[in-house]
């Protein structure tokens, strides 16, 4: 080796450590950039965007519900990611989940199905002194034993509310079907049976209707189907619903916000739930489900394919479009005259932004509706916390009870002749739309 070559090798050898250090720094910078982007760390916190009409009730509610107007602060390191909020809700549900003690009720239906719900008595008196029952509808394939439901029920019990939680037909483990159908996107039969039982068992109680995700669609549809369904109902709260399945189906096939991946995961979970009841669905003589339908179910990779091969057939819908049209609350929600709080999150990966035009438009026509849109929260997440660890109660848990408390006191302080007459109340309200954003 010549002296010149030896010199070049020496120079290169001395430069290699510096080059490796540069590569390491570049790799670290890249990882940090990806983390900041994925975790959305630069996104500022803000109060929810509140859309409502300028009425005495709206002003009272916003004054009485500071959570609707003050800054919502998710955990700093991961709470600004709608994906992580959604994933953590899906995996762990809540922090330090309580175990409320309830009684399971069984309700035989006219078609042979057996509806079930769990009843949890209040752990104290309500601040108004009234008997008030929350009738709660969980999300898709969920029931009273889910962590987010247990946490919300425990919080509501401690504030003086009796709680009745519907167990979606076919959702409870080890509970066999007694008719050849399961829950669907908008079938209100079981929820109506639960509400009817509560009204008969507690003739003095007033009702607060609460729905989460799919449950939000179902309860809004239930109230709008028949005016009598709103008797003795103080208010309704819907959280993270999509309002129109027909409009949502196309967005669920898109890859933005990983929506197509969520579609696959939800479909897989629903598929497993249906297959756990395949013997009941096939053996009952009145079943509309056959071996060919189950074969298509095995190959399904999306909710739409499952809805088309199985779910729509429970009620004899001729097409997927008809199923989505008839079971979506968008055609019924405008008939709801009780105070209605609709809550969504901008970073919800399951609910496309285009669907939020529905509640915004509704507030332009309905003085009883308030639409709250948070910047962060994901799908049924809404965790709160300082840096890393979230609080046991979420913003969602607290805001529902806070809004409900305000409605209860508003109703309590109204003249007796006007109580529970929401049609008269709405006709007297002004119809100027106001948008409040942080």
Automatic annotation (TrEMBL):
Entry keyword set: Cell membrane, Glycoprotein, Hydrolase, Lipid degradation, Lipid metabolism, Membrane, Serine esterase, Signal-anchor, Transmembrane, Transmembrane helix
Listed InterPro entries: AB_hydrolase_1, AB_hydrolase_4_CS, AB_hydrolase_4_sf, AB_hydrolase_fold, ABHD4
Catalytic EC class: hydrolase
Catalytic center residues: 213 (charge relay system), 348 (charge relay system), 379 (charge relay system)
Catalysis performed (reactions): hexadecanoate ester + H2O = an aliphatic alcohol + hexadecanoate + H(+); a butanoate ester + H2O = an aliphatic alcohol + butanoate + H(+); 2-(5Z,8Z,11Z,14Z-eicosatetraenoyl)-glycerol + H2O = glycerol + (5Z,8Z,11Z,14Z)-eicosatetraenoate + H(+); an acetyl ester + H2O = an aliphatic alcohol + acetate + H(+)
Gene Ontology cellular-component annotations: sperm flagellum; sperm plasma membrane
One Pfam family of this chain: Abhydrolase_1
The protein's name: Monoacylglycerol lipase ABHD2
Species of the source: Seriola dumerili
Lineage, highest ranks first: Eukaryota, Metazoa, Chordata, Craniata, Vertebrata
């Amino acid at each position: 080796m010549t002296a010149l070559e030896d010199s070049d090798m020496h120079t290169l050898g001395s430069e290699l450590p510096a080059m490796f250090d540069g590569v390491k720094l570049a790799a670290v910078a890249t990882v940090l950039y990806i983390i900041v982007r994925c975790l959305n760390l630069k996104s500022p916190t803000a109060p929810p965007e509140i859309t409502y009409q300028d009425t005495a009730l709206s002003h009272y509610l916003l004054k009485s519900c500071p959570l609707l107007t003050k800054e919502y602060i998710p955990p700093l390191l991961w709470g600004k990611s709608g994906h992580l909020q959604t994933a953590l809700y899906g995996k762990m549900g809540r922090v330090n989940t309580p175990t409320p003690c309830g009684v399971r009720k069984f309700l035989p239906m006219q078609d042979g199905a057996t509806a079930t719900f769990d009843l949890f008595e209040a752990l104290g008196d309500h601040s108004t002194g009234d008997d008030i029952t929350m009738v709660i509808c969980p999300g898709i394939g969920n029931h009273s034993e889910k962590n987010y439901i247990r946490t919300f029920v425990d919080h509501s019990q401690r504030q003086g509310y009796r709680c009745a939680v519907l167990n979606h037909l076919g959702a409870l483990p080890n509970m066999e079907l007694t008719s050849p159908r399961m829950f669907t996107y908008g079938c209100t039969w079981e929820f109506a049976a639960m509400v009817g039982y509560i009204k008969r068992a507690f003739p003095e109680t007033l009702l607060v209707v609460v729905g989460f995700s799919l449950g939000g669609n179902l309860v809004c549809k239930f109230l709008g189907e028949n005016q009598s369904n709103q008797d003795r109902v103080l208010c309704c709260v819907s959280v993270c619903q999509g309002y129109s399945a027909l409009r949502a189906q196309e967005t669920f096939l898109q890859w933005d916000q990983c929506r197509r991946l969520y579609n696959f995961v939800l479909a897989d979970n629903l598929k497993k739930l249906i297959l756990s009841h395949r013997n009941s669905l096939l053996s009952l003589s009145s079943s509309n489900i056959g071996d060919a339908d189950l074969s298509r179910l095995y190959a399904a990779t999306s909710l739409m394919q499952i809805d088309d091969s199985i779910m729509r057939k429970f009620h004899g819908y001729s097409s997927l479009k008809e199923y989505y049209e008839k079971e979506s609350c968008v055609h019924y929600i405008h008939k709801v005259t009780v105070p209605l709080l609709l809550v969504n999150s901008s970073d919800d990966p399951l609910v496309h932004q285009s669907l939020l035009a529905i509640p915004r438009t509704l507030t332009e026509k309905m003085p009883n509706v308030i639409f709250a849109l948070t910047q962060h929260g994901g799908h049924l997440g809404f965790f709160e916390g300082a840096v890393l660890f979230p609080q046991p109660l979420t913003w969602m848990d607290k805001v529902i009870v806070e809004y409900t408390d305000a409605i209860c006191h508003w109703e309590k302080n109204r003249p007796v002749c006007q109580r529970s007459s929401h049609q008269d109340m709405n006709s007297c309200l002004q119809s100027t739309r106001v948008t409040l954003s942080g």
